[in-house]
Design goal:
The protein is of the alpha/beta class. 30% of the residues lie in helices and 26% in strands. The chain contains 14 helices and 24 strands. Strand 16 and strand 17 form a beta hairpin. Helix 6 packs parallel to helix 7 and helix 10 runs parallel beside helix 12. The protein is globular, with a radius of gyration of 22 Å.
Length: 421
C-alpha cells in the first residue's frame, strides 16, 4: 500500500498551477450519457475518481479516450446498459450522478446505492424525490435504485436542502423533459454552475444559473461539442495554506477568486493579506501575524466543508483558540486524532472542534481518513519537525493531481513509498 514520507521544515518557494475541478469534471462526464455524439472535455484532472467514472461510462457503453493527460474524448453511440453496478459505484459517491442522465436518455435506470469517503451519511432521497416529480416510478431492491418513466414531464421541485448531487442529477434528468422544470433551493456551487454552462453549450435551455432557482425548459435533442472545465477551488485553497507557510513565496496559478470568496474572507479575518497579479494569487503574511478565528461550514457561498481540514492545519499552528463547527458531514472530524498525534491540541464537543493553537507540530505516523483530511495532514507534515509517514494516501489520490510533484517543485520533500501490508 502506498504512503507518503514527508520531511518537514523545508523552505518553500515557487508557483503551483491549479488543475481542473474534480467536482465539476465528474458531473460533466456523467452528462455525456444524455445525448449521442462526440465530446471533447479539456482541463480534466488526471485523478483516480476520473478513471473510476470513466470505467462506469465504458460499462454503460460509452468510449472514453485520453487525447492527452488532461483532455478526454467521450463517444456516445447509445447506451449498452442502463445499470451502474455496485462494484463500480461503491468506491465513489459521484457515480450515483449517472442516474439523472441515464433517465434523460432512456427514461429508465438502475443504479447501485453509492459509497465514497467515510465521512457520514449522504442519503440520496432528495435525488429520488426529484426524479419522481419528473414522472419516474422509483423502487429500491437489493441495494439498487430503479427508475422507470413512460414520459418525463417538467415539474416544480423544492429541495429540502441545497444538495449539490441532487441539484446536478435533477438538472440532467430535466433537460430533455417535456415542458418546464423549476428547481428551487438548488445548490449554487461553482461546480453546479459549470455543469449548467456545459449543458447550455450543447443547446439546453437553462435560466438562473448560479442562483438557487434554476429554470429548465426541456429540449428534444442536445448537440455535443468541446468544453473546458473550471479550475479546482479546493486545490487552490489547499495550496494557499502553503503560501502562508512560505510567507508568500509560494504562489498559486489559475485560481478564480470569486469561487473562494468565503474561504478567502476567513483567511483575511485571520489577518492574511491576499495579493493577486494576473493569474497568480498568494498571501503575504506569516503564521506569526495570524490570529485565531471561528469557522462554520455551510453550503456555498458559505465556508466549504472541503476546506475545513486544511484550515484546521493552519489553526493548529496559529497562537490562540480557534473553533470549527461542521454542519455538512457529521463524521468529518476523523482527522482530529491524527493531528493530535502530531502534537496539536484539538478537542471535539457537540460537533465543534476547539483548536488550541501555537504548539509545535512534530512528525509522526498518521493516516488519511478521507480525501481532504489527507491533504491537511500533508500540510501538517510539511510544517512539522522531522519525518511524517502518511498512510492510506489512496484517499488523496482521489482529489489531487500530481500532489507530490507539485509540492516538490516548490521545495518540499515528499515521496511516495510502498509499505508492506
Amino acid at each position: 500500500m502506498d504512503a507518503y514520507r514527508i520531511v518537514g521544515g523545508k523552505k518553500l518557494e515557487g508557483i503551483i498551477e491549479i488543475g481542473g475541478a474534480k467536482n465539476a469534471a465528474l458531473p460533466i462526464l456523467c452528462a455525456t450519457l444524455i445525448e449521442k455524439g462526440t465530446y471533447i472535455l479539456r482541463n480534466v484532472p488526471a485523478l483516480k475518481d476520473i478513471k473510476t467514472l470513466s470505467k462506469v461510462l465504458e460499462k454503460l457503453g460509452l468510449e472514453v479516450e485520453n487525447l492527452d493527460k488532461n483532455t478526454l474524448k467521450v463517444v456516445n453511440k447509445g447506451l449498452a446498459s442502463i445499470e451502474a453496478t455496485y462494484d463500480l459505484v461503491k468506491t465513489m459517491r459521484a457515480s450515483f450522478t449517472v442516474m439523472g442522465p441515464i433517465i434523460a436518455h432512456e427514461k429508465r435506470a438502475k443504479v447501485s446505492l453509492p459509497g465514497g469517503c467515510a465521512i457520514g451519511a449522504r442519503p440520496v432521497d432528495l435525488h429520488l424525490k426529484g426524479f419522481e416529480a419528473l414522472g419516474c416510478v422509483i423502487q429500491i431492491h437489493h441495494g439498487y435504485v430503479e427508475a422507470n418513466a413512460t414520459e418525463l414531464k417538467g415539474a416544480k421541485i423544492v429541495l429540502d436542502f441545497p444538495s449539490v448531487g441532487a441539484t446536478e442529477n435533477i438538472v440532467m434528468a430535466a433537460v430533455k423533459a417535456k415542458g418546464q422544470t423549476i428547481l428551487e433551493n438548488a445548490a449554487i456551487e461553482p461546480e453546479v454552475e459549470d455543469l449548467c454552462n456545459f449543458l447550455v453549450s450543447m443547446g439546453a435551455k437553462i435560466e438562473g444559473i448560479g442562483t438557487s432557482k434554476i429554470i429548465i425548459d426541456g429540449v428534444e435533442t442536445l448537440t455535443p461539442g468541446e468544453y473546458n472545465i473550471i479550475p479546482d477551488r479546493i486545490e487552490a485553497g489547499t495550496y494557499l495554506v502553503l503560501s502562508i507557510l512560505s510567507e508568500g513565496k509560494v504562489k498559486v496559478k489559475g485560481a478564480i477568486r470569486e469561487h473562494m470568496d468565503s474561504y478567502l474572507a476567513k483567511l483575511e479575518e485571520m489577518g492574511a493579506v491576499i495579493k493577486e497579479e494576473g493569474d497568480l494569487m498568494w498571501i503575504e503574511t506569516s503564521v506569526k501575524e495570524l490570529k485565531p478565528v471561528r469557522v462554520k461550514t455551510m453550503p456555498h457561498p458559505g465556508f466549504p466543508t472541503d476546506l475545513q481540514a486544511q484550515i484546521m492545519t493552519l489553526m493548529s499552528i496559529v497562537k490562540g483558540t480557534s473553533e470549527i463547527k461542521e454542519t455538512i458531514f457529521e463524521n468529518r472530524f476523523m482527522h482530529v486524532p491524527e493531528f493530535n498525534r502530531m502534537g496539536a491540541d484539538i478537542t471535539i464537543k457537540h460537533g465543534v472542534a476547539q483548536v488550541n493553537g501555537g504548539l509545535p507540530l512534530t512528525g509522526a505516523e498518521v493516516m488519511a481518513s478521507d480525501l481532504r483530511a489527507g491533504a491537511a495532514l500533508v500540510l501538517a507534515g510539511l510544517v512539522a519537525e522531522g519525518e511524517t509517514i502518511l498512510n492510506r494516501i489512496y484517499h488523496v489520490d482521489r482529489g489531487y493531481d500530481q500532489l507530490e510533484k507539485k509540492l516538490n517543485s516548490v521545495g518540499a520533500q515528499i515521496e511516495r513509498i510502498k509499505l508492506e501490508a
